[in-house]
Design brief:
The chain is an all-beta fold and 529 residues long. The chain has one helix and 54 strands. The strands form seven sheets. The chain has a 24-stranded parallel β-sheet that branches. The chain has a 13-stranded parallel β-sheet with strand order 1-4-7-11-15-20-25-30-34-37-40-43-47, with no helix packed on it. It has a seven-stranded mixed β-sheet with strand order 10-14-18-23-28-32-33, with no helix packed on it. β53 and β54 form a beta hairpin. 54% of the residues are buried.
Length: 529
């Protein structure tokens, strides 16, 4: 182990560091290869770190120091916190942002592990990741009470906030110990006690979040890929207490007051799952958050108990635009999306409450669930006073299955309408009506008796003649319609959005229902701004 303190920048180039080892207490010992504190910056270029170990930061621990890494490989390093790297730093004097940050470019993390949080990286300061690969990293939750946490997660990254761009997260995991029976997690005198497992690839935890302005709290993920990330709980299911698993790939900050937003764009989530006690489990098979915006995001073959694609818990507001949910599967609520909204916090003034979920220009194709393709649970002392039903418009629903309710499902006892729908296409779906949606017109369904009271401009018992799901341009797949489809030019120009799901300009006259526009003025994607 090399230790450094103070004296400006430190740079490491073209080095290979294998087998570094640091023993000691989790709170005081770290950095199996490098331990640095109170320096301006640690810069690492074109190096290799293999099989290093420490209680904190298996390869590197940095305290009160900026870290910049490029062209470097980390393989088979291990720690209890941050398998390869652990970073912390002070707040500025006014407590509105951190002094230090971590950035990495063109860096490779494979088969690193942690017993607590952050299989590859554990950072209490912001992390920037560009053009990097995280594969087969994991949190292997240690059953030892000295290291066990009530909040394990981040198979690849645990961080205060992230900016991820053009990176891939493949087959990262959060796994408990097969012998775990959770006796040390729960207080026998408090049966309401809980343990969390979050983020098969990324877990965000915006601690002290009320201190930060919204822009600084916001994490972003762009042009990235999450595939085959897993949360797997194998121990004996506890008779008391509660196990919560969320975000098979990514778990945003779960806050009780002011949610920390997560913005995701041009990103794909495929085959991410949450499994516990030999069944689908948890919420957000791909992505769990508490507020945010998704634009041009693809969800394919993800699995969880609730919200196989997307789940929003303690939900502030979440908006989904120009995206696709395909072949996702939920055993419970929300084959594609699940929203859990409640208002028992003083920060949520009734005058400031916005609609929890808005969906526009989205394709839902062959998703399978029990209660709704989109589901929303509401716990509110003011449910009758607030307009909380999800708004779904200009979207396409094709051959989805909801075995015990309609495609939109909301707790019947607290909400009169399952959702507000406008200018959508419904074709070939299998459902049993539960709470009915409120139509604002221009919907097209092949059903004679659908789960809404038709408005004057709705078309029931009408087939839109959707084509097979395909790449028709844009970032996510769509079901095209022909020029002679009843959906074509069926919507009044006054309510037409400027673009369809693909980013193609709608015509400026009457437009098509659903997420695909057949009459495209310029025949190609145009800038949205």
């Amino acid at each position: 182990q090399s230790s450094f303190e103070g004296n400006g920048d430190r740079t490491l180039r073209d080095a290979t560091i294998p087998g570094g080892w640091a023993r000691g207490d989790l709170r005081t010992v770290g950095g199996g290869a490098i331990d640095i504190r109170s320096s301006e910056k640690l810069q690492i270029e074109d190096s290799i770190f293999v099989r290093n170990f420490a209680p904190t930061g298996g390869a590197i621990r940095a305290n009160h120091t900026d870290v910049e890494i490029s062209g470097t490989s980390f393989e088979m390093n291990y720690a209890h916190l941050g398998g390869t790297l652990a970073v912390d730093g002070p707040l500025l004097q006014n407590f509105n942002r951190f002094v230090n940050e971590v950035s990495m470019f063109d860096t490779y993390f494979r088969a690193n592990g942690a017993g607590y949080q952050g299989g590859a990286i554990h950072s209490l300061v912001p992390v920037q990741v560009i053009g990097s690969l995280f594969a087969n990293n994991g949190v292997y939750a240690d059953p030892n009470p000295d290291y066990m946490t009530l909040d394990s997660g981040g198979g690849a990254i645990f961080a205060f906030k992230v900016e991820v761009h053009s990176s891939a997260f493949i087959e990262n995991v959060v796994i408990d110990d097969p012998s775990a029976s959770y006796p040390h997690i729960f207080d026998a005198e408090n049966p309401a006690s809980m343990a969390f497992y979050s983020g098969g690839a990324i877990m965000l935890d915006t601690f002290f979040e009320p201190l930060f302005d919204p822009d600084y709290r916001t994490s972003t993920i762009t042009e990235s890929n999450f595939e085959g990330n897993v949360i797997l709980l194998q121990g004996e299911e506890p008779a008391e207490g509660r196990i919560i698993a969320r975000g098979g790939a990514v778990a945003g900050s779960l806050e009780d007051s002011l949610p920390a937003p997560l913005e995701v764009s041009q990103t794909t989530f495929s085959e991410n799952v949450i499994v516990a006690f030999d069944r689908s489990f948890g919420s957000g098979g791909a992505l769990a958050l508490s507020a945010g915006t998704l634009q041009e995001v693809g969800f394919t073959e993800n699995e969880a108990e609730n919200g196989a694609g997307l789940a929003c818990a303690n939900c502030g507001t979440v908006s989904v635009f120009d995206s696709a949910f395909v072949d996702n599967q939920a055993a419970g609520e929300g084959a594609a999306i699940h929203v859990d909204w409640y208002d028992f916090f003083p920060q949520r003034n009734p005058k400031d409450v916005e609609r929890p979920l808005t969906v526009e220009n989205v394709t839902f194709s062959e998703n399978v669930g029990t209660f709704g393709v989109i589901a929303q649970s509401i716990t509110s002392r003011r449910a009758g006073e607030l307009d909380l039903a999800p708004m779904v418009e200009f979207s396409t629903f094709y051959r989805n299955t909801s075995s015990d309710s309609g495609l939109l499902h909301v707790d019947e006892e607290v909400n009169e309408d399952a959702g507000i729908i406008r200018a959508n296409i419904f074709e070939g779906n299998l459902e049993e009506c539960g709470v009915r949606a409120l139509s604002r017109g221009y919907n097209i369904t092949d059903a004679k008796a659908f789960c809404f009271e038709p408005a004057r401009t709705d078309q029931t018992d009408t087939v839109a003649d959707l084509e097979v799901l395909a790449d028709n341009g844009g970032f996510t797949p769509t079901h095209a319609i022909g020029e002679d489809s009843p959906a074509a030019r069926s919507v009044d120009v006054a309510i037409c959005p400027d673009f369809d799901q693909r980013g193609f300009l709608r015509p400026g006259v009457n437009c098509d229902a659903g997420s695909y526009e057949s009459l495209v003025l310029y025949g190609g994607a145009l800038p949205r701004f």
